[in-house]
Structures are given as C-alpha cells and as structure tokens.
Amino acid sequence: MSDGVPHVWRRGLQAAAVASVLLLALPLLTATRALAHDPGQGTDVGQARWMAFVGEHEVDVTLTTDDPALHPVELVARRAGEKATGRLTPVSEGTEHGRIKLHAEGRWFLYATFKDTRNRTAESWVAVQQGAGRNVSETRPVYLPLAQTYGAGRTAATVVLYGMAAAVLVAVARSCRGRRVPQPQQS
C-alpha cells in the first residue's frame, strides 16, 4: 500500500511545480511597458539651477546652466505615461525661460534637453508637484543619458533563458505523462 504514496506525492509536486512556474511567468508574459521616472544617469557635463514657479495648471521655469555651450532644445513634463512639451527660450547667456501646461494633478518630472557643441543630447530634470504655491529651486546635474540599446549578448541570453524555461516545462510535462499509480494487491 505504501508503494503508491511516494508516486502520488511526486505527481502532486510536479503539478505544483508547473502551476508555480506558470503563475510566476504570468506577470512577465502580461507586463506592459514600465512608465517610471529615470532618475538621471549618465555622464555629468555641468550643473543647472532650476527655478520652477508652479501655478494651478502651468509651470514657469527659469533655468541657468554653468556651461554656455549647452543650447536649449525642449522642456518636457512626464508623469505616468503622460507627456507635455514646452519651449525653452534663451534669456541671456546660460539662462533659459520656459512655460509648460500640466493637464493632470500630481507629481511631474520636468526635463530640460540641450545640445552640446558636439550635437549630443544632454538633459537635466527636477520634480514638481502640481498646484499653486509649490515652487522649486534646486541645482541639478546636466548629464548625457546612457543609450538604452541592447546588444546581441543580451538578446542571446534572453533566448537561452526562455529556452531553459521551456525545457523545464517539457521535462515536467513528460514526467507526468504515462505513469500509473500502482494499485495495492488484494489478498
């Protein structure tokens, strides 16, 4: 009679393993693109002094950089997949002014983008909370963002990882198929 118990347990464990793998893989298979804030990584090329005057639905920005070779390109506000754009207009050497409308309440990340003398894109950012009277005055780095390109090595590693997961699933499925639980003998 005890001959069938370990086998039954093995089947149960195999079924639990398959269910666990499927449950763990479900978020990976159904995940959408993350809409999170990039805190600003890359090579520093200078500093920017942000003065953001936050109104009810608009932010008025004065931005001063310590490198006059940085030319303003754009002012962008991002929040959880939402995006608003505005212009940065030079006021004097190293100082820009911009205004941007925010169409939803909450925390926004303002990005100022620049081009340097080698035509590389640089950026700086600051967080603001929409609503009158929530002004920001901060010095933040201006940096060259890291390129987010994925090479052949990362792609190959991803293919290998998915292949290994598929092999485990196939092995578990095959080990469950065709096995019979021994029945106790009648005497």
From TrEMBL:
Highest taxon, organism lineage: Bacteria
Keyword Signal: yes
Annotated signal sequence range: 1-36
Keywords of the record: Signal
Protein name in the entry: Integral membrane protein
Organism, scientific name: Streptomyces chiangmaiensis
